[in-house]
Amino acid sequence: MPSTVPNTLDNWWCPVDSEYAFLGFSYEVTACQSPDQLKQEFTDIRNNFNGRYVRLYGACDNPGFYDDVVDAAWEAGIGVHALIWFGFDGGNEWQTRRDSLISSLTSNPKAKFVTRGVQFGSEPLFDNVLPHEELASQVLSAKSQLSGVGIPVTVSELADGYQERGGAQDVLDAIDFINIHMLPFFSGLATSGGDAWPLVETDMNWFIQQGGGKKMYFDENGWPSVTSSGVQPNSALAVADVPSEAAYYTMLDSHCQDLKNAPGGGVGWFAHIYSESQEPGYGVYDTNGQLKFDFKPRTSC
């Protein structure tokens, strides 16, 4: 990062056709990590994995928390896919989170230089949090409010979320780029992580067909190493163990060229999630801070 905050975003971000293959981690913030922990872990993502971004997951409602994220990202030299978190209880807290985030993004001078985009999520269409017409309206409103700082807006969602209840093409049309939940473990055809490419490709191709050539990211993207009350397969053949989790990411690496060739500048992917302490079963690190498997994903091909 430069020693002083730039005056303009012109030529600040790398072109989107360089943002394919591994980009970074989903990173849950429900624990309201301290500024020091944010800086330490963002720096780890940058230096030890060549990550360029963190994709936030969950919510911390402490005042000023996103400003801590911005400071940590600035210091680590990493970008952020910010998130307006709906949660799972049907409440209206997301509206306060929306307003707080937009306030931070428009008042913190560093925010637009680390915030690659804002997501509405997680899976608001699949969870039927808002009717698709209302969600599209929210996206358009946020885009208007953030136009002065040049931050694009999207929705973090499954292909199934866009497809069910008659579809939500208006949301796909409204968003600036497409943040895709790629969780093939839950497919009725799932077997192992290493054999999941046909499932990944099916959803990716649907977004290619419906997305109007927009940039695509796999943001909530991974394969679990264990099942739990909230992580149950829909296929009797689906294998949840550490080798299968590792094999999923190796499989994505093996299809680097396919991801690079996708419309909109290729598909960039995040690993869901940074640590088991954030979401059991999906972490690349275990709860003791040790890597569960060798993780050196490709960042180019």
From TrEMBL:
Single biological process term from Gene Ontology: cell wall organization
Gene Ontology cellular-component terms listed: cell surface; extracellular region; fungal-type cell wall; plasma membrane
One MF annotation (Gene Ontology) recorded for this entry: glucan endo-1,3-beta-D-glucosidase activity
EC assignment: 3.2.1.39
Reaction(s) catalysed (UniProt annotation): Hydrolysis of (1->3)-beta-D-glucosidic linkages in (1->3)-beta-D-glucans
Membrane topology of the entry: Single-pass type II membrane protein
Job description of the protein: Glucanases play a role in cell expansion during growth, in cell-cell fusion during mating, and in spore release during sporulation. This enzyme may be involved in beta-glucan degradation. Active on laminarin and lichenan.
Family according to the record: Belongs to the glycosyl hydrolase 17 family.
Protein name per UniProt: glucan endo-1,3-beta-D-glucosidase
